Amino acid sequence: MDAHLRDLRYFLAVAEHLHFTRAAEELYVSQPALSKQIRALEKQLRVSLFERDHRDVRLTAAGKALVPHAQAVLSAWHAAEQALLTAANTLVVGMSTAPGRGLLPAVRARLSDVSLQVRQVPWHDPTGGLAAEETDAAFVWLPMPAPERYRWVTVATEPRLVALPATHRLAAQTTVDFADLLDEPFLALPTSSGALRDYWLAVDARPDRPVTVGAEIANTEETVEAVTAGLGVCLIAAGNTSLIARDGVVVRPVGNLAPGELVLAWRRDDRRPLLAALVAAVRASL
Amino acid sequence: MDAHLRDLRYFLAVAEHLHFTRAAEELYVSQPALSKQIRALEKQLRVSLFERDHRDVRLTAAGKALVPHAQAVLSAWHAAEQALLTAANTLVVGMSTAPGRGLLPAVRARLSDVSLQVRQVPWHDPTGGLAAEETDAAFVWLPMPAPERYRWVTVATEPRLVALPATHRLAAQTTVDFADLLDEPFLALPTSSGALRDYWLAVDARPDRPVTVGAEIANTEETVEAVTAGLGVCLIAAGNTSLIARDGVVVRPVGNLAPGELVLAWRRDDRRPLLAALVAAVRASL
DNA sequence: ACGCTGTGATAACCAAGTGGCATGGACGCG
DNA sequence: CGCGTCCATGCCACTTGGTTATCACAGCGT
């Protein structure tokens, strides 16, 4: 009988990690839920896919046999989704941070025959979904990993400000000097975001001293939360001030910090006219 | 996001028939259920797949684009299932009618290292799931359609008896002459079963006069039901007497009717040693 | 016009599926 | 022996998928 594609994703995650708890984390579900789904899948297929004991998890012969086929099914489905988007003249645009500034409405107006699907992508992916081909274009902050694989157009160049708890000793000042922040714990992007993490920690602007990371943040809510809780301070782009400066969070300009560059990026090898039209529309709307 | 493979089957069924009611029948679900699922699929994919009005249903461009991909996904999954069965040393054996006679336990005993998955197949498929590659071997009654595609070994040769309502005028006799049944309405297999339908209607044994079909039957329960309800009489194999002769149904021998042949069949082009082992075990168990 | 027929959509309801949290229980380790 | 790790289980809430009954609409025949 037919399975849910989700179960195949679950299966592959467990097969990859050989560890239910970690696979569950990656999938953003609880470990019991994952356990239960895998058991259900095994029951449905009438085959045991994993041998588990308290020490570790191994693939059975059947499990090993399933891995490539599960991958094939999922990639066939991915192709199907792509075909649908093409058929519907739709581009998926990832957004690490909202470009804001009225840009999107202007672009949509110029591309009335193209439907744009805007998708918020979590911050652990510095390519905004481009690398995994989950998006066709993405608003991301430089630097990007593997820049030779992408092209981009700058959308905004904005100073980096610092977000502080309202109760912070520096919150009283109208401007903060970066030197005064050196000993503060900083909120950081997940390590998977690579050079971008360092960029928002302003590692370049620091003397040769390790940064203290107070917490990792993966979206706006977590950031506000973490700053309010005093877990650390955080550099943000000027354009995002309104998203962050609320409740107990204040935002202050920082002296002597190079501005950040928000770009619309796309895969260099993606030469679809539809995408070119999007890029042209964005350029024209700046 | 990921879909349920069932939804793809549903989609393909509607795409093929361009008719919700008929597709629903084929899928053995109600028409509203199918309608709802297709709507949900469209909503999930954010694309409309069909244009419907009261007269007919048409595929949209997106729908047309999805068809081949949906087929690809399903066939990839089919391959996955096959791989699992191979990995688990499992053969799927279809059963139009239980071979009974203690055959299956004997075969299992001889094939302790092979796991047999026995599956009841509905009577509208005279190949017992072999044609659709849903089974690796099947216990079916001759004649088979496209016999050049299959091989088989005879498992039992059994007289055909007639099942009658207990209240039937002929039920009082210990033996029934087929001539006395000519004017009776008969229960028939679905038309899709082709020559097999004629076989169990004993068309060969009739003078050139059309058969009256009282109802179509697709499994044992329906048969008992229909006979009891007096919708018609029905030829059955001697070995199935115990399945049918209950409640208000009696079974009587019929004079002058060639016996039926129950065979284990498999696809001629299927040369897997595992299958050969099954055939050998069946032969040895006769 | 009027009612019948065929067809998809909708409503109300119920069962099964899916997820979360708390907790259990087996094993290895200091 | 207690503790930590890690998968399984029990229980509960919410969602999903299915059923039946009914509606709405368009042709069609009278």
TrEMBL record, chains A, B:
Signal peptide: none annotated. It holds the Pfam family HTH_1. Keywords: DNA-binding, Transcription, Transcription regulation. Gene3D superfamilies: Periplasmic binding protein-like II, Winged helix-like DNA-binding domain superfamily/Winged helix DNA-binding domain. The keyword Ribonucleoprotein does not apply. Residues 1-60 form the HTH lysR-type domain. The keyword DNA-binding applies. It comes from the Bacteria. Belongs to the LysR transcriptional regulatory family. This is LysR family transcriptional regulator. It comes from Paractinoplanes bogorensis.
